[in-house]
UniProtKB/TrEMBL annotation:
Gene Ontology molecular function terms on file: diguanylate cyclase activity
PANTHER family hit by this protein: DIGUANYLATE CYCLASE DGCM-RELATED (PTHR45138:SF9), REGULATORY COMPONENTS OF SENSORY TRANSDUCTION SYSTEM (PTHR45138)
The organism's taxonomic lineage, starting at the top: Bacteria, Pseudomonadati, Pseudomonadota, Gammaproteobacteria, Thiohalospirales
Boundaries of every GGDEF domain copy: 235-378
Catalytic reaction equation(s): 2 GTP = 3',3'-c-di-GMP + 2 diphosphate
Cofactor (UniProt): Mg(2+)
Descriptive protein name: diguanylate cyclase
Organism: Thiohalospira halophila DSM 15071
Enzyme Commission number(s) of this protein: 2.7.7.65
Keywords: Membrane, Transmembrane, Transmembrane helix
TM segment ranges: 44-64, 70-92, 104-127, 133-154, 166-196
Length: 378
């Protein structure tokens, strides 16, 4: 067994170090050349076959060494093993070149990997033969590093460009440029996938996925992203709708370009004040940070996570006051702006859209009452 393990570790280590050497001088954004891609593919296949062999060996050991008819954690391991074998086989044989679908290997391995990790946790506690399991669980654990940027994507719902680190336990480091993208189903964030390939223009893809969620003028989250965030933010939450007062007359007096600068200025103030609030009152463990977005035209929105109405009103007052205090300097002129804000707390079982409607009603009330003020929804 020791000999087998040492042989395996040696072989995989060699393949892995080769892989690291292939990729080391690669361009961190555009990926690697065609020649390197071919080399990489051969290495991946070699590695995949090695992994498949070890995993298959583990299954056989399972059947031989464990009492027959065991369900529970061994069943979990076997299901995981089967999934992993499928993923490996798919990655190793179905794709002739590295392309986007091939890059989804990360996600394909991720699912059975989770099953494996659950299996390890259970195995460590109960099984005298846990080490047998660990021998064939080590390769998938090495791949665990592949999914390390995934939690960020899953939490934020944003695409990330990140080096994907391979080879945790062999000792050889490898940082391959990759794009981790959110995977949505019917508007719901259900997972994340890693894409890496010389054919995929990572910069373009990143730009494209970013354009789907960010307003180009203010660089705040756009309405689409805010809608998504609203679905994911846990209750309690409050919504602040912020509208610039007499914005049309700013446009009419100073021109559209100055109007754009005013929008950017207000966006900066919101971002800064809300971030500061995050730092002073850190959001709950595992929860979402407050989110600031452009709701449309001259209207902005803040989703205040884990915040009840009094806290949200205090935040709104701070925002209003800061906008009022700061002037927008544009070439030869300075413009002063104010905002009106409507605030509503999401009631238990209330749809987020209904909360936004109440915040909107409060905003109209603030406008009717003279502007440059905060109103809370009933
Ligand atoms: N510069 C610029 N103007 C925009 C943009 N989007 C919307 N607007 C303008 O924002 C103005 C909104 O005007 P109104 O809805 O009448 O509101 P207001 O003048 O702010 O008045 P109150 O909200 O009642 O205080 C319109 O003139 C739009 O053309 C943008 O991206 N840039």
């Amino acid at each position: 067994m020791k000999y087998l393990r040492r042989t395996f570790v040696g072989a995989v280590g060699q393949a892995w170090r080769g892989l690291a050497a292939e990729l080391a001088p690669a361009d961190p954004v555009s990926g690697f050349s065609q020649w390197r891609a071919g080399q990489l593919l051969r290495r991946v296949r070699l590695l995949a076959v090695l992994l498949a062999g070890v995993v298959a060996g583990g299954v056989v050991l399972d059947w031989l060494l464990l009492p027959s008819g065991i369900a529970g954690w061994t069943a979990v391991l076997r299901v995981g093993t089967a999934g992993l074998l499928l993923a490996i086989a798919r990655a190793a044989y179905r794709h002739e070149g590295l392309h986007t679908a091939h890059g989804l290997l990360g996600a394909a391995i991720g699912v059975p990997l989770v099953v494996h990790v659950i299996g390890v946790a259970l195995a460590l506690g109960v099984a005298p033969t846990a080490t047998v399991q660990l021998i064939y669980l080590l390769p998938p654990l090495a791949v665990l590093a592949v999914i390390s940027p995934f939690p960020v994507t899953l939490r934020e719902g944003l695409a990330l460009q990140a080096p994907i680190h391979l080879a945790l336990w062999i000792g050889a480091g490898l940082a391959a440029p990759a794009l981790v993208v959110p995977v949505s189903l019917a508007g719901l964030l259900v997972g994340a996938a890693a894409l890496w390939s010389q054919h995929v223009q990572l910069r373009t893809l990143l730009h494209y996925t970013r354009a789907l969620s960010v307003d180009p003028l203010t660089q705040l989250a756009n309405r689409r992203q805010i809608d998504r965030q609203l679905q994911q933010t846990q209750r309690p939450l409050s919504v602040l709708l912020i509208d610039i007062d007499y914005f049309k007359s700013i446009n009419d007096t100073h021109g559209h370009a100055v109007g754009d600068e005013v929008l950017q200025h207000v966006a900066d103030v919101l971002r800064t004040v809300v971030r500061h609030t995050d730092a002073v009152h850190p959001y709950s463990a595992g929860g979402c940070p407050h989110e600031v977005g452009r709701w449309g035209g001259e209207e902005f929105i803040v989703i205040a996570a884990d915040t009840s109405l009094p806290g949200a009103c205090a935040m709104a007052e701070r925002l209003r006051e800061t906008v009022e205090r700061t002037l927008v300097a544009s070439e030869a002129i300075t413009v002063s702006v104010t905002v009106s804000i409507g605030v509503a707390e999401c009631a238990p079982d209330e749809e987020a859209q209904a909360t936004i409607c109440r915040a909107d009603a409060a905003l109209y009330q603030a406008k009717d009452s003279g502007r440059n003020r905060v109103e809370a929804a009933a």
